[in-house]
Fold these 4 entries.
Entry 1:
Amino acid sequence: MTGSQNKPKRTSQGGLILYHGMKLSTMLKLLKLKPSLRWSRWLQIGLMPVFGLYNSAMATVETLLFSRKIKRTEIHPEPIFILGYWRSGTTLLHNLMCLNPRYAYPTLYETLFPWHFLSTETINTRLTAWMVPESRPMDNVKAHWQAPQEDEFALCTMCLVSPYTLPLRPFDQKQWTRSFRLDELPAEDRKLWFDTMIHFMKKLTVRHGKPLIMKSPSHTYRIKQLLELFPKAKFVYICRNPFDVFNSALHLRNTMIGENTLGDPYHPDAEQSVIETYMEAWHAYQRDKSLIPEGNLAEVKYEDLAADPLTEITRIYGELNLDGLDEVQEKLKATLHEHKEYKKNRFEPDRYWQQQVYTHCREVYERYEYPPPDGSDTAAA
């Protein structure tokens, strides 16, 4: 591939950004973070109070209609959590796991508008379907309001205890990585995260009435806390060649910061940041996976899943003792051609960063038997 065909995909997500799902009170809290602001982002900034008023009003309506039901709702004690660093294949894995009709998952609309989706999802998704781009801005994964989405969007929108504050201050490494280490947060922030997670999952249970499949790369740092909430939870961890992750994660950051920032997208030392946070996620997983009860954890390599999703999903179902495999297998067989035709982004390898990634992430290469990089091939992600 040469020329423009070899450039990673980057398209606009439109005027809607992550923070437009917040209530006014959360937007005021956001301002206390002193986000970068620029007049070139006047549309996104100008829509903030408009959406804030709408979300606050509809959240009040939703509270009046559903608060009692939400309060007495019990979350299924065995949710499934998808783990893995950003761009390790968590979206592919999540989409495949969500083929099981016996489970539910948060949708794009529910994660962007978590305060009132019980009241507004049905009508708003019909009226605004045309506004959603055909695919995500950083890759060719299809996008629509009902697509499975990571719950971290909702957590950020509802409480701001989330790494997705990164676009607000992309130059402030300390601010956006603090939520990786929940036990080190002030008690107020830690309680806020726990309360928000439970509240959102209760709302999803009210909406769907099924066990939940949740996905967020950030949860890779939070296994201990997730087990505090759900001791019987099941987990699937996905890994990928570290240099492919590195290239794709850099592209993700550049795209999502550019699309969601309110100001300057300047993100210094991004390469080193990706390596550091990748290894922090790896060490957190290695540290805490022993806390997961036997039979409640499965691991998969992205390369194996992409090459043969039917075999790998079948194995995962067996290891976790999940029901509904026959239904999932039939749906997988019907979509195998689509998976094979999916076009990945491609990146020209940088030999310096190939070596840096290998040097810092060597234990991951060795643990999962990835070959040392030789810089001879174009990396796909």
Note: The beta strands are 80-83, 213-215, 234-239, 297-301, 346-347, 379-380.
Entry 2:
Amino acid sequence: MVTEQITQGAQTSTSQAAQAGQTAQPVGVPFDEPITDWRHRHLLDVDTLSKDEILRILSTASAMAEVLDRSVARTPALRGVTIFNLFYEASTRTRSSFELAGKILGADVINVSGSGSSVEKGESLVETLNTLSAVGADAVVMRHHASGAPWLASRTIGGHVVNAGDGQHAHPTQALLDAYIMLQEFGDISGRKVVIVGDILHSRVARSNLWSLTTLGAEVTLVAPRPLLPSAMVRGALEPEHPLGLPSVRVESDLDEAVVDADVVMGLRIQNERLRGKLLPSSAEYARRYQLTSDRIAKASPEAIVMHPGPMNEGVEIAVDVAHGPQSRIEAQVSAGLAVRMAVLFLLIRGGA
């Protein structure tokens, strides 16, 4: 179990350091030593990560959580490194946690948004990336409305690239922090039943979670109205070679049936434009069939937890009492994002080729 191994190792490290009269560093985070066993220069999605690599990130995140528990949560691990947060879409949780993660690790962090920059004057993405590279960007954390934009960035600049969400494609750090919460809760998620309900078709969070959770051995069930499922999934997603290039998962239309004995139930945000358009009849109809309610969660495992990547439409995809109830881990997800993003920045910059 990842969290148990980290905890036991940290206790041993603390004891040895105390005997030597030194301050213990979190196990798994050798701040003053090069990382020689990490092969990735960028984090563009989780589908390129092996199970061991995902667990390595999450164990490093556990160690980073120890840093956050200090009276002064600071370390010079990335001192002298310049990180640019390049966000073409509005974001509160992701951008603020990446900014704080970089600063806690000792890096210089600069925020650049689409509004108020040369982008408004017509500067292309490549021109912006070349500018950041020219002024000394060691890493770029990037959110963009176009799927694939971080891949372009990784081929344009010499520094490291972290995908903070691209179009409808991927959101790797969200998937990693979701797995982190599940590991904290259950120790091992292999064989655990995870139900993801909502707008699967347009969700980059769902896609990245499919890869990370199946890689870690979870049994994933997707639930959505037919218009909010990829067309290939409507025909069935149990083929060994999925037509979308996605891992094999179960697809259901009946949420009440899908949540039975589930260990994790994760809701996805329904955007207002889906409700105003032709994909869904109304928010009331969606809520009737797919809202996470206390009655539905009661059908899950007694130890089941409820998750949501945020922001939430309370009363639409999730009931208020469920969002803020004892089984909710939604606030914990936000907190976990900081430690996970610290781990990602540290491993890429200190260990990436």
Note: The chain is about 40% helix and 15% strand.
Entry 3:
Amino acid sequence: MNDRFEKKIKVLLPYIIIEAIIFFLMPLFMGHSEGAATYIIQIGIFPLTAIGCSVFYKLKNQSSDIYVCVIAPLFYAISALLYGMWRDSAINVLVYMASYFVCGYLGLLVADVIRKKKSEKAESSVPEPKRPSPARVDVAKTSAEEPVVADSFKAEDPDEDDSLDTATTDDDIEEILAAIHKRKS
């Protein structure tokens, strides 16, 4: 066998199994009459299976393969042969096959929309970098003689000077940084 074909079958295998189970076992519940169960299965369960498998395939594998759309009509044709649905009306079976193919393709389109919504949500939910908020100072309570010092600049050791004045030199700053470095290690 061709390696590419084998890889494609391995990727499609879970969806093939799910659709085979549903398309081959659900007609057992339909019976031979045209009752409500028949319509619920053919108009509800089978299309939802085709759409669901296509959506999950596209979201997981991120590729639009027409093969996943063909699985549902193929299994419906086989189950129609097994359960004698061709005898009643071949045109109905062909219409259902075409509609299941369209449902599979619709599932691929729905997966595109879901992926686009997720990417838009991820782009919009990127948080902005947090900036430290400055300490609030009540201007009415402070006098011109007191220097205004933010809480974040206060020294951890109460004996240290917690304000910097304009007379601070580069040597003073180096000493302060060296003291901070010693404290951290």
Note: The mean pLDDT is 79.
Entry 4:
Amino acid sequence: MKKTATKAFTNLVSAILLLAFEIWAYIQTLGFKQPKSAKYVKPATFPQVMICGMAIFTVILLIQSILKVVRGMSKYDYDNAPAPSLNPVKNRGIAAALFVIVLCICYSFLFESLGYVLVSAIICAIIMVLIGKRDAKTVVLVSVLVPLVMWFIFYKFLKVNIPMGVLQPLRDLVDKF
């Protein structure tokens, strides 16, 4: 089998792309505004720590992949297997992942106009059906009650103002109590 068709080679390419993204993300954190009152922990501290942690594991993956591609692997090595196809027509998992990405983009566009509860309920129901939940009662109850309860907790207890969109009368009703 050609080395470029193995999982080890795809790991190598993925590690290079991920490392490039991590470098870009770290550079972006350098532009965060630094308040004068923050002496030790600044707004960029947590993202930089997370990026450095990811970069460590990415470098380990990169080194392992380079060694396996250059030195070769035994026929029983897991990374010597053929790389899976990323073609969404052949691989239903990839198609589902792309669909979820499109749903997340739609979520961000509809969030302000329709509101958190309604958009979250719709997206939750779609994803539950997508992953195989077919019991209508469960899908409806979970997709409606979870966003409602989360909104209530954030709005009433944590005092976070979340957009309600068309369900603004619900917020007005809760404010009366």
Note: The chain has two domains: 3-80, 92-175.
